[in-house]
Known about the structure:
By secondary structure, this protein is an all-alpha fold. It has 8 helices and no strands. The model has no long low-confidence stretch (mean pLDDT 84).
Amino acid sequence: MPAILTPASTRDALERRSFSELKAALAASPARLAKLWPALTPLERAACWRLLPSGALAAAAKALPAAARWEAYLASSVDCVAPYLEDAPLGAREYFREPTRREAALLRAGIGK
C-alpha cells in the first residue's frame, strides 16, 4: 500500500482482501478517507469506514461532510461488507469492527450540520 491512499490503491487492497494493510493505511491518515469518499463505491466506502481503528474514527468523521457521515453511520453492520468476506481468509471478519456507542453518537451529532 502506498504512503498516500488513492482510490485505485484502496480498491486494489479490498480486491486482494488485504484488510490489515488497508487498516494500517487508514490509521496513518484517517482524514484522507474524506478525499477518497467521492471516488469510492458505497461498498468500498462502507469497508473503509469499518476498517478504521477506533482512535482514527473521530478524525475521519470530522473530515467527512454530513451526507457522508450519514452513509458511514448506516454502515454499522458487518453484513454491509459481506461481499468482501466471501472468499476472504478465515478471521477476516475480525478486521471489520462494530462502532462503539460513543462513535455512533459522534456520527449522529455531525449529521445535518
